[in-house]
Give the backbone structure.
Amino acid sequence: MSLDRAYWTEVAAIFDAVVDLDDAERAAVLDDRCANRSAMRAEIEQLLMRDALEGALVTDVTRSLDAEPRAPAVGSTIGSFHLMEVIGVGGTGTVYRAQRSDEDFSHQVAVKIIASPVSQIDAARRFRAERQILASLRHPHIVMLLDGGVTDASHAYLIMEYVDGVPISRYCQDHQLSLPDRLHLFRLVCSAVHYAHRHSVVHRDLKPANILVTAERIPKVLDFGIAKLLDRPLPLDGTSTGPVTGPLTPNYASPEQLRGLPVTSSSDVYALGVLLYELLSDRRPYETEGKPLDDIMRLVVNSDPPRPSARPSENTLPYPALRLKGDLDAIILKAMAKEPDLRYGSAEELSEDIKRFITGVPVIAQEPSFAYLGRKLALRHKAVFITSAISLLLVVGALVFALWQAGAATAEKRRAEVRFAELRQLANALIFEIHDAVAPLPGSTAVRRTIVARALGYLERLAKDADQDAALRLELVRAYIQIGKVQGLPGAANLGDREGAVASFRTAQVLIEPLTKLDPPSADVVEGFVEATRRLSETLTSMTGHRDEAIREAEKAVAIADGYHRLFPTDVKARNLLASSSFTAAFAVGYPHSLPHWQRVSLLYDALLVEHPEDPQNLRNVALVEKYLGTHYEASKDLPQALMHYTRARTIDEKRVLQAPSDRGAQGDVAIDLSNEASVRWKGRDRRAGELFEASLALRMRLAADDPKDELAAARVAFAQGRLANFYEDAGEPARALEHGHAAMAFYGSRPLAPSYAASVAYILATVARVEEGRGNHAAGCAAYEQSFDAFSRLASVERESAIAGGDPMIDVARRAAACGVKAARDWLDAAKPIR
Amino acid sequence: MPIDLRLDVVALDRALMELSSIAPDKAKVVELRYFGGLSVDEAARYMNVSPESVKRYWRFARAWLLGRLTVGEVDDPE
């Protein structure tokens, strides 16, 4: 295939010219225009063939499924069989009982007519190949495929062995089968599935309705590979605002199937797991009835089902559910693992493990560290999916929104509106989920970089269209801000891609700036500009050497917000924008010149709070400003003032917690307040500081315990431990200092050393070292000094921007380490520049 | 709309990128109609071409994409 645009332009032109001609004319034109270019002609013919396919992957949007011709009815003939009666209607088609003639009752077959028409051109060919494979499946528990074809009316049909039975789940319930009997039945099904897998046939749609059990208790699996035979992926019918119908049964669909990833034999194993779940507990793992697709996806892909043994009673089982506890739970859940690699490698392995259980031998299925591992790995896969999905969603969202605004007709407008809302939601959810959930995962940085690169690529292309369209621009601006946020996230190995984040925020700013000049400016535009600029400024502030630039940017935001505020002085949003941009400015200016800024911010937020005293956002903002004011006074050594502000912050944050007890952010803020207050009190040598530090630590430990997956919470506990170690060292309680120092190191030691931790590690080890020396434990002290120096030097080399790297504390530690005989420390001292 | 955006997004994405480099107009139509759910007329307006052109582009792109998307599928005997 040539990548030459000119080539394809010509191909397209010829295609257009011949596509509606009849065969003879077509051949003539092709002879003419493709003379001596047989490769091109072949290419065009391929295209023509695919053009003729109906019901293909990319359908015409305006066609509705109702328009399809009806299927044959009872009494008609398919092949040499008469259709006698309908025995089932499923998502893929209708099944009839049929026989050779009106009298030949003995030779019954089941004929399945596939619901949607299939084009003759490809169908016959494909069918033949597939049917041969399926027909070769001969297994006592697989319904045999006898024949198949396509009717004149373009309906595909399959002729199968007729099975008189009921779905396996119903069979087990109706006959109240014992646990061993259910397991035995299930193992027979596994053998059938495994046999098919060995013949490279994946079922893709295993569920009780596809497994019939005869009166002789013989299970028969139906519909192997039927989905494949239709030459299309299983359509998931319905929009996300309606319940899911259609051939894909959500409860049995594996996470990868729901996400449209390739289906393998492992997906069948998953379905077997779900089946086992249902057979043994008479319940389904997920409640998907009537739920919209988004919810179902979230359930199956992300959440863990309740353990089979743990379902509440209302027991229809002839044995107690508790018998499932332990091994059977584990087996089922292993088969249902989100990550295919974690499941059984084959249906046979699953069956073997059940056999082990029956014979009383230990089973392979371990109790997985279920929640964490499952979610973590599911997320990792999800991130790859997100790469493309996000970029596409951003593109679509923007386009649809813009066009909707451009005044499309009502029906399309509504449809676009719904679509847009869905997509925005999904895009936002995806981005925020990255933000919150992927950040702490190892390896997530590379993933994020990919996501960001792809999304940026799309955005750039979209930006070219945005010249004329203000609404589109706004969307773009928002998208760039989101991207910048993702880029700026700290990762395990680095402090995030801050240069990238700056670039993204700047782009957002540049895009929206012209719109701020409009008269009057719109609220959305002002908000967009302020947000982009604030984030730009804040990112710059966190990078050393960019302070002036950070301040300039913040002042831009203040200027715009101020202008807008003058126009609408009582508007709450306008006031908030002014307050928040002033906040960013104060932040950028930093100590010591920031005081007037903070005071101004404080006035603005206090005024907002007075008007709406219960608004949690207002409370949070005021408390935050109080913290910064406190920090300022603490730094300028005005302890009483500092204490006043910290105390006020604590009062407000405690009120927030009372209002919303589950707000972890508020609780975290109280912990910060306690620590701040303690810090100030200790500077004034007030021994109450100890209890406050301890209270802060206790609160942090509770928060971390509430959510064991929250890496940040755990890190803060460690930090608080370090703080306490310092306090006790200072307060002359070395034993306690060591206790907390070691507790902190227990955390840091269990993680790869990240620059964000390196600083804390360096300081804590220095404290531990000093305390050990003080107690006369020279060896332990030296070891700690050496490690502390190591941490400091790693900090200095990796994070050149860190203000503390190479500063006084490092020199002190280096001296001690050198005295202990650490060569690297001696070398460093010799080479270190003198400090001002 | 019978198509679910989440299905095989990665493959579609790649195919679209390819299409947009060899035949950008056609790719644009796909984006607008497939993702945006726009009608022929709306797409025509957006792209500043005639509805006939949109239909032509759409037909070509569809045929082309089908070729891309059905190749290399797992378990595909072809």
Notes: The radius of gyration of chain B is 13 Å. The helical segments of chain B are 9-22, 24-35, 40-47, 51-70. Confidence is low (pLDDT under 50) at residues 1-10, 71-78 of chain B. The longest helix of chain B spans residues 51-70.
